[in-house]
Amino acid sequence: MKILLVYPYFIDSRMDEEDISAIPMGLFSIGAVLRANGYAVEILNAYNLGRKPYRIYQILGDRRPDVVGFSILHANRWGGIDIARMVKKVNPATPVVFGGVGATFLWDHLLTHFAEIDYVVRGEGEYSFLELIRFLESGASSIPTHIDGLALRKNGRSIKTADRQPVADLDQLPMPADYFTFQHVALTRGCPSDCTFCGSPAFWSRRVRYHSADYFVTQLQRLREKGVTFFFFSDDTFTLKRDLVIDICKQIIERHLEITWAAISRVDRVDEGMLKWMRRAGCTQISYGVESGSQEIRDIYRKRISDADICRAFARTIGTGIMARAYFIYGAPGESDRTIQESLDLLARIRPLAAIFYILDLFPGTALYEAYKAKNGISDDIWLNRIEDILYFETDETLSQERVLEFGRRLREEYFASLPRFARDIELIDDSQLYPQHADFLSRLALTFSHGDYAANPLIKENLSTAVELFERSLQYHPDHRAFWGLGLVYQHQGRFDESIDILEQGIRHHADSVDLHLALANSLMRRNRFQEARQCLEVFDTHPQAVEQIILCCRLMADQPAEKEWTKHLHRLTRQKTAGMPSPD
């Protein structure tokens, strides 16, 4: 059988597509189980195909899948319904299966109202889906009520089968990296917390299961061999088991994986010793759910953390050279000018180097959603509306849209206005083993101010001066390549070409093989009309197209027409090699 697994599109546009573009990890795990059992499986990332139905029809026509499965997060459920209808138009006999957290909590609603959905896999889906595929392959005419973890129709009514017992030993699952390439990985399944805005407590029953360190790092290693160098450790809380985390970090170092990664944690689940190991093993960012500076609102969220926990975690994380990112949720029950000010006051104390502010949403499977239904006497049929979510303030007479949007404006404007000061006030621990990591951390942050997201943010002032200070501080710890390069580029932008030449030449003494440093140096030399020197510094990279283009420009500016002609011929040869599929040097 040919099986197509689909990650559907969302109906609302996003400012940053990165928020929705990654295929959920569970889809790769299901695909791995199917492939390990001999089935032909393809995964379609359709997150950006909402305005391209012709493309979806083309894929369905070309692939002719025997079964189509969908990963439903909830906000993409309408995309799943749309594509399911396309599946049935192409071939009405093709079984359509919904799964994922969104389908698990709305299985009855989906089967009752949408005839194009044939089955729903509830909860952890690998073996429920495998058994369903085997049943469909058998051609049996019965209803598969014997398969645990399903929902289906019987006598025109939607029913569910027995709950499936979760996989006891996660290491027994086939390794998805053997079959697919991806960046999002997870050590755990589940979360012990019971936050009222989150569906994890109901989905995983607050139970946590773990992969072994060997399984987890082996998967990283196999993905690294495929060229993946940056990973998202997407656990609800990566750092629940301290010794396991440290074991993983030691194995990453011992295997010389040379990767970087970002993780998610809780402020009461980290300590300085663990953070040092994480930093040495390549961790560059940890995201913490702070949610609010108001203890009253954190209590509503059942977020059992204190201001002391939050301040301690952010100081230790930043101190070890890891970007500490804060999640805040606003527009909660009882939100007011006072509680927003408490959040701003907390931001000023913890000085996060990144922050994301969300309006409180209500989703099926969360305690806040269940309370909303009970209070208003409504059913899941509210999701027949073509919407992705319900904003809490829409259900609360004490909160208006105008007021909640103003809360968000205040949080963002005051945070981003303070960010240069937060960056300048970074306090790093004095540990010589971490000096190279400190330099890397500071130069990464500096580049964000000079060329990245913060450079383009109109709410952030003093971008370049902040970047210069961070680059210069980076070089006090270690001769960091990025710091030399970034500082040279900023000096160029400021018209400080002599200083740019000086810092780039210093960088080349430490990183003689760096094309980027030589290209930047050539640019500054040309700005000083030192064309011959610029040409000479690039000639060692005569197989790098961009370097050759700069050499040609130098020849033109020196009026050396014969040399310009020869280098132009050389560039054409390089271009033909690349077009013909021949390997071209860096």
From TrEMBL:
Annotated CDD domains: Radical_SAM, radical_SAM_B12_BD
Keyword annotations of the record: Iron, Iron-sulfur, Metal-binding, S-adenosyl-L-methionine
InterPro entries per record: BchE-like, Cobalamin-bd, Cobalamin-bd_sf, Elp3/MiaA/NifB-like_rSAM, Methyltransferase_Class_B, rSAM, rSAM_horseshoe, rSAM_sf
PROSITE patterns: B12_BINDING, RADICAL_SAM
Cofactor(s) for this UniProt protein: [4Fe-4S] cluster
SUPFAM superfamilies: Cobalamin (vitamin B12)-binding domain, Radical SAM enzymes, TPR-like
Domain B12-binding: 8-143
Domain Radical SAM core: 177-410
Name under which the protein is recorded: B12-binding domain-containing radical SAM protein
